[in-house]
Specification:
CATH topology of the largest domain in chain A: Rossmann fold
Helix content of chain B: over 70%
Number of helices of chain B: 14
Oligomer: heterodimer
CATH class of the largest domain in chain A: Alpha Beta
Strand content of chain A: 15-25%
CATH topology of the largest domain in chain B: ABC transporter involved in vitamin B12 uptake, BtuC
Structural class of chain A: alpha/beta
Number of strands of chain A: 14
């Protein structure tokens, strides 16, 4: 028995030693995904970011990840394990990891944490998110320009601010082309469930929409749109393969640029906790090629994208009224980020009631 | 040709004691081959899976935390399954208990009193028990199948929780995200040791399992459970009521699942959110059987299963492998444990039956 304990202890010491030396040469960057890294959507986009980071910084970094970590009691253990395993920088990539990240960060003041899409931060916890609404505004412009029916279908996931903000941005983009444009919304109550998403897409197609857009992750709505001969927008990654004759464009999450930037900051010792909300101009999201649309629609989309990139156009610029008719933004007024991040109301023209 | 399992006349006593170790050995061999085929060092993988989590104090705490709901629910389920009542809905009772317990900190968040925690725990148990009372009532008085009703009620509980945290119980200061307020400090289960975050829930789990073991082994109620479970008719002759047993077993297991739920939200999550369980109620079914439907065995089984979760994460991180591999490995472990147990009780017999074949031919 004693021998066994000795053997275990020495092997543990050896392992501990190797871990310590490799951590000194390389900066270890760790990622926690809520889904499998091959989900074809959200988590996969983050994993592409991790691979881009490895490619860009080569020998200077070492990466590790945990996938399929449920947003419940397991999250805290997963984050703590990362902090203990020598990670210098930990990206927790889903909203539900927020409190776990904050709790663990208190125990490990030397480790840097970045939490995606949350609103709590501290000395060593920063937050990051992408201004996806910029892409949704462009989609709204394209929808109003190409739709013959004047109605688009919107498959929404959950009524959280991020999603409501996306619907409003889409509507404002559409109204900038056609003030009478309409959006039909179906709440799928899932982030990724091909069956439910396809049902939602069929229901919308039956109601006569000729453009579909989605805030869910699977390619099912794109496939339904292709079957029905209508157009659709992709989500999170380029879904052109699912609808070569169907996809107008897609909002592509390109987290890699951001991950490289922040890892370099840790290596240089310049990292500090920030609340970062990057947009098209920072390269945290991109638009997939504009396809399957007339030239004038494509030109307008490109022009809108250029204006957003240059800062000439902010999608949430007044005059904008709320759905109930009350004033929200005065003429020329731009919404502050706080209102957008906590958005719980529709803009005028949306014919739907927010579920609560 | 058919394959039949035939009960052995005299299962070997020695082998049934050795069975778990035999299974572990087989898992290690099969798992080692799997890791080697993947090009990973089997020694390193097995070390991170089984040994590393046992060396760090913090991961011992994590194992205890993970095992707490599994043991609490699993121990309750042994009473059900021994008495032939198939409660599959512990997941729903877990959620019902968590919701009922959270009434106090969510609705009376300004009430700072030492009474908060005991009230929550009592509410949690009542909540879980009441939720289990639905399939119990339906089975005892309407003769419905409790497997179906208790399972269906799981989805109702999940959706009800989802509705609560997105609607009436949503925190006013969480930017519309679907969470309730954080519980006040009086509503949080205290940690029991200074060295880590294991909370009082683990003590509840041990006490509950030990208590049920005592009841099953030394009391008339325990005898009643096993008699009714093995033969309802014999139980009736002894004057035991199977209807009362339905109520008793469902309420006990529901109450313990509810206690697990409230302990989890109070001690670990500190609030309600749309997902509070990664399927504890279902995993606990495996735990109950792995523990051979013995409450003390459930403690061991719960700890082993918790170890495989914690170890699974360690392997993922040290070897950079997918979590699917660790799930396969967990599956291997369960497969070997259950098949070793089965093959010690039964033997495989190949049946070459002429009569069977000709009668099948005749039917054609």
């Amino acid at each position: 028995m004693k021998k066994l304990i000795f053997a275990l202890a020495t092997s543990a010491a050896v392992l501990g030693f190797t871990a310590a030396t490799s951590a000194q040469d390389k900066t270890k960057v760790c990622f926690i995904y809520v889904g499998p890294k091959t989900d074809g959507g959200y988590s996969e986009a983050h994993d592409h970011g991790r691979q881009a980071l490895e490619k860009a910084l080569g020998d200077k970094v070492e990466t590790a990840y945990l996938e399929n970590v449920p947003e419940g009691p397991d999250a805290e253990r997963a984050v703590e394990r990362m902090a203990r395993s020598g990670c210098a920088l930990v990206f927790t990539t889903s909203f539900g990891f927020m409190d776990a990240t904050i709790k663990v960060a208190q125990k490990f003041p030397d480790v840097k944490f970045e939490h995606a899409t949350g609103f709590k931060s501290s000395e060593n916890v920063g937050t990051y998110n992408a201004r996806f609404y910029e892409g949704r505004y462009i989609q709204g412009v394209i929808a109003a320009k190409t739709s013959k029916a004047g109605v688009a279908g919107y498959i929404a996931s959950f009524p959280i601010p991020e999603v409501v903000m996306g619907i409003n941005a889409f509507m404002l983009g559409a109204q900038s082309v056609n003030p009478d444009f309409k959006v039909k919304i179906v709440w799928a109550n899932t982030w990724a469930d091909p069956g439910k998403e396809a049902d939602a897409a069929k229901a919308l197609a039956d109601q006569g929409v000729d453009i579909l857009t989605q805030h869910t992750d699977s390619t099912a709505p794109m496939q339904v749109a292709a079957e029905r001969g209508i157009k659709a927008f992709g989500q999170a990654s380029d879904m052109i393969a699912a609808g070569p004759q169907t996809q107008l464009t897609s909002i592509v999450d390109t987290w890699g640029n951001y991950y490289i930037k922040r890892t370099e900051a840790v290596i240089d010792g310049t990292w500090k906790s920030e609340q970062i909300w990057d947009g098209l101009k920072d390269g945290i999201l991109e638009m997939a090629p504009y396809t399957n649309m007339p030239d004038d629609a494509k030109a307008l989309a490109e022009e809108t994208e250029a204006k957003i990139r240059s800062g000439e156009l902010h999608p949430f610029t007044g005059p904008v009224k709320k759905q109930d008719g009350s004033d929200w933004l005065a003429d020329g007024e731009v919404s502050d980020d706080g209102t957008l991040l906590g958005m719980n109301f529709y803009v005028a023209g949306i014919d739907d009631k927010l579920p609560d | 040709m058919r394959i039949e399992l035939e009960k052995r006349a005299k299962p070997s006593m020695l082998l049934s004691i050795l069975s778990p170790f035999l299974a572990l050995g087989l898992t290690v061999i099969a798992g080692g081959i799997m890791f080697a085929l993947l090009g990973k060092s089997p020694g390193m993988a097995l070390y991170s899976f089984f040994v590393e989590p046992l060396l760090d104090v913090w991961s011992l705490h994590e194992i205890a935390i993970k095992a707490t709901p599994l043991i609490l629910i699993g121990a309750g389920l042994t009473v059900c399954y021994r008495s032939n009542n198939w409660n599959i809905g512990a997941e729903g009772q877990f959620i019902a208990g968590a919701i009922a317990g959270a009434i106090v900190p969510v609705l009376f968040h300004d009430w700072h009193s030492p009474l908060v925690l005991p009230l929550m725990l009592v509410f949690g148990m009542i909540g879980g028990a009441l939720y289990a009372a639905i399939p119990a009532f339906l089975k005892a008085h309407m003769n419905t199948n409790e497997i179906l009703t208790s399972l269906m009620l799981v989805y109702i509980a999940q959706l009800f929780l989802d509705w609560l945290v997105r609607g009436p119980w949503r925190s006013p200061d969480a930017y519309n995200f679907p969470v309730t307020r954080d519980f006040m400090p009086e509503a949080v289960l205290p940690e029991i040791l200074a060295s880590g975050r294991t909370n009082l829930g683990f003590v509840f789990a041990l006490v509950a399992a030990a208590g049920l073991w005592f009841m099953m082994r030394y009391t008339l109620k325990g005898f009643e459970i096993s008699v009714l479970g093995q033969s309802e008719r014999a139980g009736r002759f002894a004057g035991f009521s199977s209807r009362r047993m339905i109520w008793f077993s469902m309420l006990v297991s529901g109450g313990l699942a509810g206690l697990a739920g409230v302990s989890e939200v109070s001690g670990v999550i500190n609030k309600l959110q749309p997902i509070i369980s990664p399927g504890y109620g279902f995993t606990a079914i495996i735990v109950a059987f792995l523990g051979r439907l013995n409450p003390l065995g459930v403690i061991a089984a719960g700890l082993v299963l918790a170890l495989t979760y914690v170890g699974g994460e360690a392997v993922q991180l040290t070897l950079n492998i997918s979590d699917k591999i660790t799930r396969v490995f967990q599956g291997l472990l369960l497969f070997f444990v259950l098949s070793c147990d089965t093959l010690i009780q039964y033997r495989i017999r190949l049946v070459f039956s002429r009569i069977g074949r000709s009668s099948e031919g005749g039917a054609l």
